[in-house]
Sequence to fold (72 residues):
Amino acid sequence: HIPRQANCFLLFRKDYVDRHRSPKEEAKEEAAKVWHRLTQEEKDFWVRRDSEVKDEHASLYPDYKFQPKLRK
Fold:
């Protein structure tokens, strides 16, 4: 199983949850609120980080193509 690449918000949320000591579910909710308050310049950092992670993922899994499974 090849893991799906995280997007810029998921990278931000993971970093936010790792840096805060509140319970994980609370930290996730807080991260979403903080994300919406970030300036475009602050979000651009995570967009650049997303691009780096995307390149790493592509080099590790060159034939990867996201194919969602259909649910019945």
About this structure: The longest helix spans residues 40-60. The chain has a mean pLDDT of 92. The radius of gyration is 15 Å. Helices lie at 8-19, 24-37, 40-60.
